[in-house]
Amino acid sequence: MRNIYNALRPNGVYLMKEIHAAADAGDNPKVPDLLKTTRFTHVEIEQLPHDVMNDYYIARK
To answer: Residue 55's domain spans which residues?
Structure first.
C-alpha cells in the first residue's frame, strides 16, 4: 500500500475495488483503516447501482 501511495502525485486519487462482504459498507472498517494508516486522506466508500457485488474506495493523497 505504501508503494501505491508513494507512486501517486500530490493530490492524487487511488480507486480500490473490494467485494461487498458486509450488509453495510461501514461495517467493514479494515479497508478504510488500512488506507488511513498509509496516510491517505478523505477516504470515501461508494457503491454503483449496476455493481452491487463490490464497494469502491476512493482515497486521496
So the answer is: 2-60
Task: Name the domain count of the chain.
Answer: 1
Angstrom distance (rounded) from CA 25 to CA 12 = 23
Query: SS3 sequence, the chain?
Result: CHHHHHHCCCCCEEEEEEECCCCCHHHCCHHHHHHHHCCCEEEEEEEECCEEEEEEEEEEC
Q: Are 1 and 43 in contact (CB under 8 A)?
A: no
- Whether residue 23 is predicted with pLDDT greater than 80 in this model: the reply is no
pTM greater than the 0.85 cutoff: no
Q: Cβ neighbours of residue 6 under 8 Å, at least 6 residues apart?
A: none
Measured in degrees and rounded to the nearest 5, phi and psi for residue 8 equal -75, 145
